[in-house]
User: Fold this.
Amino acid sequence: MNIWDNNVLTAESISKSFDGTVIIKDIDIYLKENEIVSLVGQSGAGKTTLFNVLSGLYMPDSGFVKLNGQDITGKPGKVSYMLQKDLLLPYMTIADNTALPLIIKGEKKKTAREKAVSLFSKFGLEGCEKKYPSQLSGGMRQRAALLRTYLASDGIALLDEPFSALDTLTKTSMHKWYLSVMEQIQLSTIFITHDIDEAILLSDRIYIMSGKPGTITGEIVIETPKPRPVNFNLTEEFLNYKRRLVEML
Amino acid sequence: MTRKYQSIIDKIAPVAALVFFVLLWAAVCGFGNVPSYMLPSPAEVIKAFISDFPVMMSHSAVTLFEAAAGLLTGILLAFLTATLMDRFGFLYKAVYPLLVISQTIPTIAIAPILVLWMGFGMAPKIALVVLTTFFPITVSLLDGYRSVDPDAVSLLRSMGAGRVRIFRYIKLPSSLSHFFAGLKVSASYSVVGAVIAEWLGGFEGLGVYMTRVRKAYSFDKMFAVIILIIIISLLLMCLVSLIRKAAMPWERKGVKNK
Assistant:
């Protein structure tokens, strides 16, 4: 590995099978600091399996995962992972939910909660501290889940379809919110999505995953600098990316 | 039919049924076909209830103590058993059938043996209450532990949590509603269990008093004790509901929108 290489996360030749069926095969993937990378592909291509390997929940059959050059293959707790559902625990207040990863890392309950709450305004969660998840709208729950993911991370997060459960209008406003938050915090992210527009809108780079077993079949760099124009998704440039992406799928 | 109207009917119906039942009872006694020493009228029972109230109270203190001691021990044992069974799969497979079998043993049959073993003091009563309350709580806790969302466990694991923290933050709180459902059943069992154990011998307690008035053919007093046991059981169940509400504030505040 080169010295000038600024990959925070590298995974090489990852393969994983279950009950003799190979789900993903020889996957190479990397993530640079503060980069937003998306992973698109049909359902069943093994995207979630790949995330489970990257997060350390699954041990791959072959290959390794490195975080800042350190081997973390099969070691959970290093890379933050937001699962498909928001999974806010219904029996904890939003403050406690978001502080949970800090408590698990060994911080005192009080300081953990203070740290979490200090970020509430940045994440647009003011006034939700003492509420329970069932009292929040879908968009707000997603914000809380993102804050929890951010607090669980040492700078790297994996998001599995973070916006898929939201309706179109909420989704659009969440995209804007997400980009503005990402400018304020340091978080290198890989996210899974089925939504091509979302991928182009938010990402610096897109991986395309397909086949059975799933492999990385393509990669596109979205060169448009951030912050991107308001109507980026209506520009010629955007449509060109979309055309390329659809052809590759 | 409007919803408000429906809710009024829902509230009145059980009260009306109860009133109807008591009136029927009074009518049967009023016609004079049934001798009052066999079936006392509601009025006689209420009279006996009032006149015997102080005596019954001192007896119920003993019964309640036995029920509470047995129930608390039952809860502790259930927690221990369920948690160990959940943690070790082989234990679950080995012990679960035994638990079910233990529940088919009739309480009435085991009570005299307990008295033989432990004497006429409180010990056999408490032991019987433990036996009857332990099972519902264990089973409901086990169900609770097993119904935990595996994704929630994955989430905690991805945060680097081990078994203990997963138990503390996921399994235990998610099982609370199951636990309280089991506790509600067990709370009512606990009083009945203590009373049954007292039937077979002892010096104090509602069961002892019950045997005494039965032998004296004071059926009005007998019915008064039965009513008191019902009231105590209902109060205990209410208490469980109150504790549940206090322990699970998110259920109260929860405005259900997806």
